[in-house]
C-alpha cells in the first residue's frame, strides 16, 4: 500500500482551505481569537497563545507525527510539511513548541526504538503529550561526539550526569529523548540515545534550569536540566547501545526535510502582508504595487518561495523514494531554504520601510516573521552544520555527475504515489547516483537549443562540470570537520544547483497542474535565473518577467497560498472551529 492510497490528491480541493487553515480562521481579523493580533500579544508576553495550543490539541496534531501502524496519521513527508505551514504562518513558536519538538523527539524512536518504546511514545503523543529532544550540550554544541553528558551503567540502571541546555519544551515535556555518552572510547560508538519518562525520574536526581529568552520566537520555551546521579532503567536505551549517531543521522533526514518545508508558512504570511500594503498604499500618485521596484521585490520573494518549496518538497519525497541519497538532499535543503528565506524577507522589509519594525498596527506581524525566521532556521542544526554534513559526501557523489539517470514523477510529481516511509532503511551517507541533479543534464538535452530555459540548463551543467573537478581535487583534510573555506563554497554552490534541478524536475513532472501559471515555464525560468545569479553564472535571461508580479497580486486578491499548490487560504471561520477552540485537553 502506498501513501497515495490513503491521502486525497492535493489538487482535488484547491478552492477550499486546508482544514487546519480553516480552524485558525482569518489571520487579519482583529476579532479572531487565533488571528495575528492575538498571536502578537502573546509574543509580546513571551507566551504561547493558549487558544492556539487548545486548537492543535483538538485537531490532534500529534497524530501527524505518529506512524499509521501505531495509530497515527504520519504518511507522506511532503504532506506533513505542507500541513504544518498554517501553524508557522501564525506563530513559529507555536509550530516549534507544539509540532516540531514532538517530531524531532519522536522520529528517533520510530527509527530504532523497541516495540514497547514505540507503543508507549505513540500512546503519549496521541493522548496530547509532548516529547522533547535533548541532543546537544551547551559547551560542545552540534559537535555531539564530544558531548560530555553521561549515562554510566550501574547494575540494571544508568546514572545520568551532566547538563542539557537550550532545549525546546524540555520543562513542558512528559518524555525526553536524550543523547548520552555511554562509553569512554573515542569515535561514533561511544554514545547512546535514551527515552526518558519525566514522571518516573527521581526528583532528587535532576533540577530544571532557568528559561532562556530569545529576541525572535519569543514564546519558545527554551530551558535545560541538570542531572546528578539520576537513576533510570537500562532499558531506556533506544536501539543498540553505542549506535545513537546512526539513529540520529537517519532521523535528521526526516526533520531536516520537513521543517524547512513547514517554515514556508511564515514566508507566506510575510509576503501576504507586504502584498496587502503594496495594494493599498499610494506613492507618487500610484499604488506601491504599480511601482517597478516594489513589483520586482515582491516577484523575487515569490520566486524564492517557489524555489524553496521545490527543493523542500523534493527532499521530503526523496526520503521515501531515494533513501540511499536523501542524507545529502536533506542537509542541502536545511542549509539552502533558511538562507533563501532570510534574504527574501529582508528584501520585503525594504518595501515596507519603517513599518517593518512596527510592533503594532496592521503590518506588525511582519516584524514578528522578520525576527522569527532566523531563529527558526537555527533550530535543529544551523547552515554551517548542514554544510559540514554535505562536505564529506561530495567527492563520492560527484563521481556520478553528468552520467547518472534522472529521477521521475515518483519523486517530483506533487500528487504522485509514494512508498511507505522506511526509517531503518535510510543510509546515513548518500550512495549511488545523484538522481536529482541528473534532471539538469537530461532535460537540457530535450529542450530546444535556442530557448532561454536551454541556456539556463547549459549554465548549470557547466557549473556541475566545474564542481565535479573541484570535488575530485579536494584534499583529505578538506573532506572532514577541519575543511577549509573552499569546501564550504563547493557545498553552497552544490545546494544552489540542486535547487535548480528540483525546480526543473517539479516543472517537468507537473505539466497537468490546474494552475496555468505552473504549466508555463515563466516561473522555472525566473527561478533558475535567480539561482544562477547567486553563483555568479551569467545567463542572459531576464530575471523577473512582469507576469510573475501579476501572479503575486492575483494570488493575494483571490486569497491563495504563495506555494507550489496554491490552495485557498482562510478568510472566515467555520462554526465548528469555535467549539474546538473552547475545548480543554
Fraction in beta strands: 5-15%
The CATH architecture assignment of the domain at 246-558 turns out to be Up-down Bundle
CATH class of the domain at 246-558: Mainly Alpha
Largest sheet: 4 strands, mixed
Number of helices: 19
Could you characterize the architecture of this molecule?
α9 runs antiparallel to α10 and α13 crosses α15. The N terminus and C terminus are likely disordered. The strands form three sheets. Strands 1-4-5-8 form a four-stranded mixed beta sheet, with helices on one face. It has a four-stranded antiparallel beta sheet with strand order 2-3-7-6, covered by helices on one side. The chain has a domain of 313 residues: Butyryl-CoA Dehydrogenase, subunit A, domain 3, CATH 1.20.140.10. With 585 residues, the chain is an alpha+beta fold. It contains 19 helices and ten strands.
Quickly describe the structure.
By secondary structure, the protein is of the alpha+beta class. Helices cover 50% and strands 10% of the residues. The longest helix has 37 residues, at 244-280.
Amino acid at each position: 500500500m502506498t501513501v497515495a492510497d490513503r491521502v486525497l490528491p492535493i489538487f482535488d480541493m484547491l478552492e477550499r482551505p486546508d482544514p487546519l487553515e480553516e480552524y485558525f480562521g482569518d489571520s487579519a481579523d482583529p476579532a479572531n481569537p487565533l488571528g495575528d493580533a492575538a498571536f502578537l500579544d502573546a509574543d509580546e508576553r513571551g507566551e504561547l497563545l493558549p487558544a492556539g495550543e487548545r486548537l492543535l490539541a483538538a485537531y490532534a496534531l500529534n497524530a501527524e507525527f505518529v506512524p499509521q501502524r501505531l495509530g497515527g496519521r504520519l504518511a507522506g513527508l511532503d504532506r506533513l510539511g505542507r500541513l504544518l505551514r498554517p501553524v508557522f504562518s501564525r506563530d513559529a513558536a507555536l509550530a516549534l513548541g507544539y509540532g516540531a519538538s514532538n517530531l524531532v523527539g519522536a522520529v528517533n524512536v520510530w527509527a530504532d526504538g523497541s516495540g514497547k518504546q514505540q507503543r508507549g511514545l505513540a500512546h503519549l503523543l496521541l493522548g496530547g503529550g509532548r516529547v522533547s529532544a535533548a541532543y546537544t550540550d551547551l559547551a560542545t554544541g552540534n559537535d555531539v561526539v564530544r558531548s560530555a553528558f553521561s549515562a554510566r551503567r550501574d547494575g540494571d540502571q544508568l546514572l545520568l550526569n551532566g547538563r542539557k541546555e537550550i532545549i525546546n519544551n524540555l520543562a513542558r515535556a512528559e518524555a525526553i529523548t536524550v543523547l548520552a555518552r555511554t562509553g569512554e572510547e573515542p569515535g561514533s560508538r561511544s554514545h547512546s540515545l535514551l527515552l526518558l519518562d519525566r514522571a518516573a525520574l527521581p526528583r532528587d536526581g535532576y533540577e530544571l534550569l532557568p528559561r532562556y529568552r530569545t529576541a525572535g520566537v519569543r514564546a519558545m520555551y527554551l530551558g535545560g536540566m541538570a542531572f546528578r546521579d539520576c537513576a533510570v532503567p537500562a532499558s531506556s536505551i533506544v536501539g543498540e547501545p553505542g549506535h545513537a549517531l546512526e539513529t540520529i543521522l537517519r532521523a535528521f533526514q526526516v526533520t531536516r526535510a520537513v521543517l524547512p518545508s513547514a517554515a514556508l508558512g511564515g514566508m507566506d504570511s510575510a509576503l501576504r502582508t507586504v502584498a496587502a500594503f503594496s495594494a493599498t498604499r499610494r506613492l507618487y500618485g500610484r499604488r506601491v504595487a504599480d511601482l517597478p521596484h516594489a513589483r520586482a521585490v515582491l516577484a523575487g520573494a515569490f520566486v524564492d518561495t517557489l524555489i524553496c518549496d521545490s527543493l523542500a518538497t523534493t527532499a521530503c519525497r526523496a526520503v521515501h523514494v531515494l533513501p540511499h541519497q536523501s542524507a545529502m538532499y536533506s542537509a542541502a535543503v536545511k542549509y539552502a531554504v533558511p538562507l533563501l528565506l532570510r534574504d527574501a524577507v529582508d528584501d520585503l522589509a525594504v518595501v515596507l520601510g519603517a513599518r517593518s519594525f512596527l510592533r503594532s498596527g496592521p503590518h506588525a506581524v511582519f516584524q514578528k516573521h522578520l525576527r522569527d525566521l532566523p531563529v527558526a532556521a537555527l533550530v535543529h542544526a544551523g547552515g554551517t552544520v548542514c554544510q559540514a554534513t554535505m562536505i564529506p559526501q561530495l567527492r563520492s557523489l560527484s563521481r556520478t555527475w553528468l552520467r547518472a539517470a534522472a529521477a521521475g514523477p515518483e519523486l517530483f510529481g506533487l500528487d504522485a504515489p509514494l512508498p511507505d516511509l522506511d526509517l531503518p532503511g535510510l543510509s546515513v551517507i548518500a550512495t549511488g547516483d545523484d538522481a536529482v541533479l541528473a534532471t539538469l543534464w537530461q532535460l537540457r538535452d530535450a529542450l530546444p537549443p535556442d530557448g532561454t530555459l536551454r541556456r539556463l540548463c547549459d549554465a548549470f551543467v557547466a557549473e556541475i562540470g566545474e564542481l565535479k573537478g573541484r570535488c575530485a581535487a579536494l584534499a583529505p583534510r578538506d573532506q572532514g570537520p577541519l575543511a577549509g573555506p573552499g569546501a564550504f563554497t563547493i557545498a553552497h554552490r552544490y545546494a544552489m544547483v540542486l535547487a535548480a534541478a528540483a525546480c526543473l524536475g517539479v516543472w517537468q513532472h507537473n505539466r497537468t497542474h490546474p494552475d496555468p501559471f505552473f504549466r508555463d515555464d515563466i516561473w522555472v525560468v525566473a527561478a533558475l535565473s535567480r539561482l544562477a545569479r547567486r553563483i555568479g553564472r551569467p545567463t542572459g535571461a531576464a530575471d523577473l518577467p512582469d507576469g510573475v508580479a501579476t501572479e503575486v497580486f492575483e494570488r493575494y486578491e483571490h486569497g491563495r497560498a504563495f506555494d507550489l499548490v496554491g490552495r485557498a487560504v482562510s478568510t472566515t471561520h467555520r462554526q465548528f472551529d469555535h467549539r474546538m477552540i473552547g475545548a480543554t485537553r
